[in-house]
Write a structure and sequence with these properties.
This protein is α+β, with helices and mostly antiparallel strands. It folds into two domains: 203 residues, Homing endonucleases (Endonuclease I-creI, Roll), CATH 3.10.28.10; 79 residues, no CATH class. Helices cover 60% and strands 8% of the residues. It is built from twelve helices and six strands. The protein has a four-stranded antiparallel β-sheet. Helix 2 runs parallel beside helix 6 and helix 9 packs across helix 10.
């Protein structure tokens, strides 16, 4: 199973104990996966996702003690008109004649005004329309909405938890997405996917450690390359001075520096300073080598 599928299975298994939270999650399922039956007046659920089907059945059973629910195809979702009217009223969907427009609109704000209800709403939304890339490859979580107003409400609810989310248009859909690993971790926590959160955090730690090691190796490699290049140039300058100018014409401090550099071509500047008499620091070695370079440039000119 994909990581996204694992998250949905974990969320589907969670049932809020409070009825108001159950209604908030049920509202998300109806608004994102609900439709109107062929008779044009009854609710039905259109989805191939078994997690959505199980969750919808469980929520209806707990909130209304309904056992005989039709949840496949375009048959009525609820067993009778009286029960359906109670559900429609509880979810603030208006009158039956306006169901088609109501389920495509945002969820009534009264249902998600509490933080716990907003969490349940996000949980239901992810089960219906959410997906997540494999965190081993990249960090990306999104909700694919058919309606712009629903996408904007979803984004706003996520942002109420101090998590950055954005909406983009993708063909005929409106996509709410998160691309930062930290934001995705926070959202999983908000929705209650704690096992998936820990798995993601473990993957993030391994990934960040690997990236840190790679950066350090690259930095050290670059420094070594820079040091080798500088040492090669210094030796080239010193050999030119020896052959074209003569060490005997150099001041004692520069002559000693030139001889030490030729004797220890791979040594770092600080190490070279220790071989001089008297020893000098890194800046002193650098100054003498720079003076030798200037003499070599003068010879070339």
């Amino acid at each position: 199973m994909s990581f996204s599928g694992t998250v949905k299975e974990e969320l589907a298994a969670q049932i809020s104990s409070a009825r108001h939270c159950q209604l908030a999650e049920l509202a998300a399922l109806i608004h994102f996966c609900g439709n109107i039956c062929e008779d044009g007046t009854h609710l039905c659920l259109e989805t191939e996702n078994e997690a959505v089907i199980r969750k919808c059945f469980t929520l209806l059973k707990k909130t209304y003690n309904i056992d005989n629910v039709v949840i496949k195809g375009k048959s009525s979702l609820l067993p009778d008109d009286e029960t359906e009217s109670k559900v429609i009223q509880a979810l603030h969907l208006g009158v039956k004649e306006e169901l088609a427009a109501a389920i495509k609109a945002p969820v009534n704000s009264l249902l998600i005004k509490n933080s716990c209800c907003a969490r349940a709403y996000l949980r239901g939304a992810f089960i219906c329309i959410g997906s997540m890339s494999d965190p081993k490859k990249s960090y990306h979580l999104e909700f694919v909405c058919s309606e712009k107003a629903q996408a904007e409400q979803l984004r706003d609810v996520i942002q109420e938890f101090q998590i950055e989310a954005k909406v983009i248009k993708r063909k005929k859909y409106n996509v709410v997405y998160l691309k930062e690993g930290a934001g995705i971790v926070d959202l999983l926590n908000v929705m209650g996917a704690h096992v998936s959160l820990m798995n993601l955090e473990n993957l993030r730690i391994v990934k960040e450690m690997r990236n840190s090691i790679n950066r350090r190796v690259n930095c050290e490699t670059a420094n070594i390359s820079k040091t080798v290049t500088a040492a090669s140039k210094q030796i080239e300058d010193i050999l030119l001075i020896r052959d074209k100018y003569g060490f005997e014409n150099l001041p004692d401090n520069l002559r000693q520096m030139a001889e030490i550099r030729l004797e220890y071509p791979d040594a770092a500047l600080k190490e070279l300073g220790g071989y001089l008499e008297p020893p000098v620091g890194k800046s002193g070695v650098n100054h003498r080598l720079r003076r030798l370079s200037e003499i070599a440039d003068g010879i070339r000119a």
